[in-house]
Structures are given as C-alpha cells and as structure tokens.
Amino acid sequence: MTSCTAHTYKQGLSLWLICLISVSWVLGQNHLSGLTDSLTAYMDRNHIPGAMVSVVNSDTVLFSGGLGLAHVEEVEPASAKHVFRLGSISKSFTALAMLSLLEEKGLSLNTPMNQIDPDLPIVNEWEAEAPVTIAHLLEHTAGFDDFHLHALYNRTDSVVPKAREMVDAHKNSYTCRWKPGVRKAYSNPGYILVGHLMEKLSGRSYGEYIHATILKPLGMESSGYYFTKPMHIPFSRGYRKVGKEILPISFTSIQGGPAGEFCT
Predict the structure, then answer these.
(1) Using CB atoms within 10 A of its CB, is residue 22 exposed (0-12), middle (13-18) or buried (19+)?
(2) pLDDT tens for residues 103-124?
(3) Bridge-partner residues for 187, per DSSP?
(4) What's residue 179's pLDDT?
(5) What global pTM score does this model have?
(6) How far, in whole angstroms, is CA 33 from its chain's centroid?
(7) Contact assessment for residue 142 and residue 187, using Cβ atoms and an 8 Å cutoff
(8) Which secondary-structure segment (H or E) carries 151?
(9) pLDDT value at residue 31
(10) Per-residue pLDDT reduced to its tens digit, 49-106
C-alpha cells in the first residue's frame, strides 16, 4: 500500500519519483501550481483517485495537502486533514522509535535479540557465531522469510493483538535461511519482532511507545498504528484498479502491526 488511495506499488512509486524529480524545478521556479497540475494530470491518466503530497526544503514546508478525492463515491476532496494508510512506511517510524529505546536502555544495534527475549520461535543454526541482532532485523539481513499468505490478514481479533501474538502467528517465517548479516531479504515478520522487543523493553505496547516518543512530540496526534478504521478523524478510502475501473476496498487489518499498519 502507498499513500495513494488507488494503491498499486508501481503507481505509488512512480508518483513519489515524480515528486522528487519535480522538487528541483519547484525550488528553482518558486512556483508550485505547475507541480500540482502535473501530479493531478498523472493521477487522472493512471486512475488514481487521491493522494497526499508534501514538498519540503530543509526545514521549510513548501506545500502540504491533498490532491484528488479521498472518497470517490461521495466526491469528497482529499484535504490536509485526511489520514492515509502508509503500509510499509510504518517501518520507518518503528525503526526510529527502536533506536530511541536502545539508547534509553543503554543497548546498541549489535544487541542480540535473544538477550532481550530468549523465548522466541527462532531457528538459527548459526546462533553461536552469528546471533540475530537488532541491526539484522532493521536491515532485513536476518535471513527470515516474508509473510506467508495464510498469516497475512487478521480477520478474527476485535482488538489489536500484542506483538508477541503476531510473532507467534508468523512463526513459520522465523528460520534463518543463511548466516545472519550475509545478505538481505525483505521480511515484514522481522519488524513484528522489533515491535515485540520494543514492548519487552518499554513495558508498553509498541503503538503507545511510538506515540509518546515520536508522534506526540512532533504534533502528529492523528497518526498511529490503526488496527481498525478510526472513526474520529477524516479517513481516506482505499481503492483497487481493475482495468480502468476503480473499486473500493474495505479496511482490513494485516497481521503486521509495526511492520505495516501506520496511518498518518
């Protein structure tokens, strides 16, 4: 998922690339209408209903707001107040909070995760010489597999599960397929482990800790790891593209929490 309501990965990546390429032009011309017009035209060509866009220069926000529609059926324009699901950008906030927590507890990126919790469903035949560290989890170099389809969605819980429960749901992914640190392979379950270790170290849920240490100080009061669709804030609807037709999709929680459920 991306910050676009029609969230195919390729289109979302292309949209952000356009933003990055256009920034130098925007700064040189000091003129934003051309950029927003170009983005709107791109969205129209690719049938993307809505997007949230920010353009920054150093510590100055040049533009921040919505383009297109947050809800197609109600013809509701996307605004700066609408919350979007960010998918794997969740990991950036999880990693930042973990770095803060490690510093707070006098630990480092090289701390083995088994030092924090030795009772984890991890299979690592190289444990004696190469235990899985926090750095391995954050850099996707532990050798773990990604989501298995049977454990991807959470359609049963009515409240957000603890990170340890999500770890257990993905236990089949936690086998080191090579010596940790040797090579990289993207692993969402690795970041679920980060969330669990955060809960062990802080005594709070990963969501509470991240809100207190990262989001609240930044004034990001509407942001968070939402397990169910929030009703108290304007929320953009998700869509999928079938040919040229845009179809709404329901808010379905993944068994991912700290790896993929951040909304902002």
Answers:
(1) middle
(2) 999 999 999 999 999 999 999 9
(3) none
(4) 97
(5) 0.81
(6) 29
(7) yes
(8) none
(9) 67
(10) 999 888 888 888 888 889 999 999 999 999 988 999 988 999 999 999 999 999 999 9
Spatial CB neighbours of 203, under 8 Å, sequence gap ≥ 6: none
For residue 202, give both structure tokens. 């802080």
- Burial label for 235, CB within 10 Å (0-12, 13-18, 19+), is buried
| Residue 63, strand partner residues | 55
- Backbone Cα Rg of the chain: 20
Report residue 247 as tokens: 């179809």
Q: How far is CA 68 from the centre of its chain?
A: 22
CA dist., res. 264 & res. 214, Å (int):
13
Nearest CA to 191 out of 125, 134, 254 is that of 134
CA distance 255 to 167: 9
> Using CA atoms, how far apart are residues 230 and 196, in angstroms rounded to an integer?
23
pLDDT at position 249, please?
Answer: 87
Closest CA to 85 of 216, 241, 251: 251
Q: Phi first, then psi: what are they for 172, rounded to 5°? A: -70, -10
Mean pLDDT calculated for residue range 242-256: 85
198 and 176 in contact (C-beta within 8 Å)? no
DSSP state of 235: B
Q: How far is CA 49 from CA 14, 41, 72, 244, 247, in A?
A: 15, 11, 7, 12, 10
